[in-house]
Amino acid sequence: MKTDKLVLGVLGGIAAGALMGILFAPEKGKKTRKRILSKGNDYADDLKDKYETLLGTITKKYEGIWLEGQDLLSDGKEKLEKTKKEIQKLEI
Predict the structure, then answer these.
(1) Which carries the bigger pLDDT value, residue 51 or residue 22?
(2) What span, in angstroms and rounded, lies between the C-alpha atoms of 7 and 50?
(3) Per-residue pLDDT at 82
(4) Four-point Cα dihedral 18, 22, 28, 29, nearest 10
(5) Which domain holds residue 55?
(6) Angle 19-14-47 from CA coordinates, rounded to 5°
(7) Which one has a higher pLDDT value, 36 or 79?
(8) If pLDDT is split at 50, 70 and 90, which confidence band does 79 have?
(9) How far is CA 41 from CA 25, 46, 48, 49, 73, in A?
(10) CB 25 within 8 A of CB 32
(11) Burial (Cβ within 10 Å: 0-12, 13-18, ≥19) of residue 76
(12) What pTM did the predictor assign?
């Protein structure tokens, strides 16, 4: 949820900044459009970097949880087999 709000906030800020830049630009339209495009590209690159960092972090956490789950499952299977053998010994 927080990430969604952050992304929407950043995109809203970019749109508002671009609009204000166009409305209050003291320079010619062509130059202003180039500046807005450049800023937009900078913001998009920054957002992309943050997204990739976030994705990398989530991926690492997922892999860690997955490996931990596999270890727990393996330990559980070993304990189950040990318990089965102990029960079989008691039945004899």
Answers:
(1) 51
(2) 10
(3) 92
(4) 80
(5) 2-91
(6) 160
(7) 79
(8) very high
(9) 19, 8, 10, 12, 47
(10) yes
(11) exposed
(12) 0.49
Token couple for 23: 């409305």
Cα–Cα distance measured from residue 35 to residue 18, given in angstroms and rounded to the nearest whole number:
10
Counted domains in the chain: 1
**pLDDT at residue 72 in the model:** 93
In this prediction, residues 8-32 reach a mean pLDDT of: 76
Query: d(Cα 81, Cα 55) in Å, to the nearest integer?
Result: 39
- Return the pLDDT at 92: 66
Token representation of residue 47: 């957002």
d(CA 39, CA 19): 12
Q: Report the C-alpha gap between 15 and 39 in whole angstroms.
A: 11
- What is the model's pLDDT at position 13? 83
Are the C-beta atoms of residues 9 and 31 closer than 8 Å to each other? no
